[in-house]
Amino acid sequence: MIIALGRTDSYLQRSYEHNRRKALVFLLSGIFLMVLGGTVIGGFSPSWEVIVIVLGLASLAISWNYLKRSLNYRAGMEGERAVVEALYALDDNYCLVNDVVKSGRGGNIDHVLLGPHAVFAIETKNYSGDIRCNGDQWRKKGRRRLYPIDSVSKQAQHNAKYLYGLISKKTNIRAPVIPICVFTNPSVDLKLRKPTVKVLRLHELVAFVQEAEPLTHLSALQTQAIVHCILEEPGEKT
Taking the model in full, what pTM does it have? Predict the structure, then answer.
């Protein structure tokens, strides 16, 4: 497999580092305010002491929220790396482009895989626990109830539609794009009912790509043109 874009986690890496820094700043601020409220101004008005301690607790709570976000982004990075490692099993007829930033729309496409007979837009999730899909509706089971989560299938469909439009506009190549959702965490429990896109576990990905029905025929020059048009999109690329 040829990798046209070396970084697999630039979008997630930036988000992870941003949230980790925020968590550290609010953690230190919270500790400082708690110490200040309990010692330095302890001899002043009790109301000031309460206010400072409350602010300290609020800062610690915000720090915890940023920490949870950073851990989620780190899990996403690990999932994307797992997909890249799995795709190494493909031969050099396939070309992989990672972390494609969607110009003007925000967000990114985790992986774009170009093969001789198909283009794949891969959405990677490293979720754990009980995940349920009913069409385009996705939910996760908590301790007491099921709660809705962002639609993984809609995200994959939007990515495929964006990629098809980009390729068509910049290269005049009408290459159908297949959206795929890949779950990388072995502890995830998937319950699927009429999913609108192909939903796979990590170990199923390579076989699905190799056995996919031919939808087009891309020459080496066409593949190269598509890769170049993707790499020309704004975003931090290697």
Answer: 0.77
Query: Of 158, 224, 236, 233, whose CA–CA distance to 197 is shortest?
Result: 158
Residue 3 has a pLDDT of 67
Distance CA 56, CA 35 (A): 9
Element (H, E) at 3: strand 2-3
User: Residue ranges of the domains in the chain?
Assistant: 2-231
Q: What is the CA radius of gyration of the chain?
A: 22
User: Packing angle between helix 152-171 and helix 220-231, nearest 10 degrees?
Assistant: 110
Q: What is the pLDDT of residue 8?
A: 47
Instruction: Using 70 as the pLDDT threshold, list the residues of the chain that sit under it.
Output: 1-12, 38-46, 104-106, 233-238
What gap in Å lies between CA 169 and CA 209, rounded to an integer?
25
CA 115, CA 215: separation in Å to the nearest integer? Answer: 10
Positive or negative, the CA dihedral 65, 67, 72, 77 is: positive
* Cα(233)–Cα(158) distance, integer angstroms: 17
